[in-house]
Amino acid sequence: MKYNALSLLKQGLTGQQGWPQAWRSATLQPRYDAVVIGGGGHGLACAYYLRKIHGVPRVAVLERGWLGGGNTGRNTTIVRSNYFFPESAALYDFALRQYEQLSEALNYNIMLSQRGILMIAHSDHDMELMARGVNAMLLNGIDVELLSAAQVRAELPLANASPTARYPIHGGFTQRRGGVARHDAVAWAYARAASALGVDIVQNCEVQDFIFEAGRIVGLNTSQGEVRAGNFGLSASGHNGVLAGKAGFRLPITSYTLQAMVSEPVKPILHTVAMSTATGMYVSQSDKGELVFGQGLDLYPSYTQRGNFNITQSVVASMLEIFPAFRGLKMLRQWGGIVDVPWDYSPILGPSPVEGLHLNCGWGTGGFKATPAGGYFLAHSMATGGHHDISRPFDISRFTTGALIDEAAGAGIAH
To answer: Cα separation of 69 and 305, whole Å?
Structure first.
């Protein structure tokens, strides 16, 4: 259906009654070949790849609330692959490469803006570690550039360049392929594409319990009734630990709140995504002109989708120390998302300890940037019963073998 300016105005004034649905609102059926738990970006991507790549006939996505209403709609939209360890670099660069062609593949504009990611060093010590990190990333095949203090100041003209600043600029590095993408558009794109392939997307369907036969998960009890399938995928973000408990095992993760906020909109003043190694603060500017910013976790276990004032204060204070010109802006809104953080800050992918259930969890603060990869590798695990070469290092067995991938220390920043 084509729209001109007048018809778009009419639709806007009448509640979009004439617009076709982007995806089918499905009713839960009693039997599927594969069921994905979680209707965020990862779960929807998994369902799409199960149908598109693996040809699994009957696939359903179950979402407790509404599609994309969890962390997919509660993040700061950053995409990048500048990770320290080769295993992480391969994983996140796979995701970034998928993002780069996703609008064309799904025929939906995800508004990818590769404006770059710039990490700021605030001391000589920061610069030394940053140089080591850049060398490691280059060896990993990631396109990054080490920047001098003058080059950072040129990229960020509003940053406080005074040598007496609390966080002086000593240099930095950038990944120019990084940037931002529209978070809800990513979910909608996968939902529409999956639905067009016959996937049932069932909203307001809460998983209450697992059904076992001979030690294998064969079904679910949900708020909409019982459903059975050959395989199940768990991709429920901050609630993965709760659902794993219902399945009879414990995940090595802890759920925290990660909050972010936006300012009132202003004209374009920030042309890259800026991150501070000293504070963990990150900020970008949306297409609407809002500054989108955040920092670290509320460091106590929580399932709330809001943050505490002390963290809000810390985030704002850090940003204003680095960008004093932002002090006159009003904060428009604030929110929190529930993130599941493993002991080594790297995701858990592949078969679970229980037969019939496969895992895509533990993305911590980096889930959105990995959406295509998380869905792709969960689909691979569900369809084949095993690992893709890229996902194999992230198997849950690493917590017993000791082969951890500690990106919190390696990357210097958890986001």
So the answer is: 11
* Of 143, 138, 137, 135, the residue nearest 177 (C-alpha): 143
Q: CA-CA distance, 221 to 209, in Å (whole number)?
A: 5
Tell me the pLDDT tens digit for each residue of 179-196: 999 999 999 999 999 999
CB atoms within 10 A of CB 29: 14
Q: Are 356 and 406 found together in one domain?
A: yes
In a domain, 215, yes or no: yes
The span from the CA of 273 to the CA of 286, in Å, is 10
Is residue 350 classed as helix, strand or coil in its secondary structure? Answer: strand
Domain count, the chain: 2
CATH of the domain at 154: 3.30.9.10
**Residue 88: which residues within 8 A CB-CB, separation 6 or more?**
346, 405, 407, 410, 411
What pLDDT does 4 receive?
74
pLDDT digits (tens, 9 = 90+) for 233-243: 999 999 999 99
- H/E run at residue 242: helix 240-246
Question: Are residues 333 and 263 located together in one domain of the fold?
Answer: yes
- CA distance to 36, 136, 204, 237, 243, per residue, from 224 (Å): 15, 49, 8, 21, 17
C-alpha to C-alpha distances, 125 to 134, 173, 295, nearest whole angstrom = 14, 14, 21
Which stretches in the chain have pLDDT values below 70? 1-3, 16, 409-415
Q: Which of 415, 260, 264, 257 is nearest to 334 (CA)?
A: 260
- Domain holding 53, by residue range, is 23-77+183-252+344-410
Burial class (CB in 10 A: 0-12, 13-18, 19+), 191: buried
Same structural domain for residues 174 and 261?
Answer: yes
Asked if residue 10 belongs to a domain, the reply is no
Query: Does 51 lie in the same domain as 65?
Result: yes
Quickly count: other Cβ atoms within 10 Å of residue 146's Cβ: 17
